[in-house]
Amino acid sequence: MRVTGRLLVGFLRSRYGVALALAVVVVGILATTSLLAPPRQDASTGPPVDPIPTVHPTVGDDGEKAPPAPRLAALPGASPPERVARTFAATWLTGPREPAGWRDRLRPMMTAGLAEKFADADPASVPATALGGAATVTALNEYLAEAAVPTRRGQLKLRLLADGGRWLVDAVDWEPT
């Protein structure tokens, strides 16, 4: 009897004994909770408990309203952004192709930062030669706008900034068609 007791105690103290004891405890807990828990109802069977709410099609939107679109500042005596964008685009696309003269014609319509970036620009790199339609201007805030000027080969994108009481081009981008 002593030998059997020692073997049993030795087994229970080994890692196998500890694992067996833990397994018995886990099985006991699972069995107890499944016996004491109320029966589950399967949500996929039967009609919904509450009716599904519907809204009549003539009822307006009751969600949040979008904030109003920003309006561009009216700068007294200054050309509107649409005209500045169109004039800049026409100058960018046409006229003398000598680089220094081309940059000099664009400079009065640019911010100082853009003029620095254009210091080495060459009109030969301009991908289009003619305008294709009217400029569309989108206000980003009161003093910042984006203009899209269509050409026959793509779209000239301009960022306009109200600076010193007038609208100036602050960035130029090109989107080919």
Word description of this protein:
- This protein starts with a helix and ends with a strand.
- With 177 residues, it is an alpha+beta fold.
- The longest helix is centred in the N-terminal third of the chain and has 22 residues, at 15-36.
- The chain is built from 5 helices and 4 strands; from the N terminus they run H-H-H-H-H-E-E-E-E.
- It is elongated.
- The protein has a 4-stranded antiparallel β-sheet.
- It is 34% helix and 19% strand.
Shape: elongated
Strand ordering within the main sheet? 1-2-3-4
How many DSSP E strands? 4
Radius of gyration equals: 38 Å
- What is the end-to-end distance? 95 Å
- The poorly predicted ranges are none
Helical fraction equals 25-40%
Question: Strand-residue fraction?
Answer: 15-25%
Number of helices: 5
Please identify the structural class as seen in this structure: alpha+beta
Q: Which H/E pattern describes the elements? A: HHHHHEEEE
Question: Biggest β-sheet, characterized?
Answer: 4 strands, antiparallel
What is the typical, i.e. mean, pLDDT? 85
Transmembrane segments: 16-37
Region (Disordered): 38-79
Keywords: Membrane, Transmembrane, Transmembrane helix
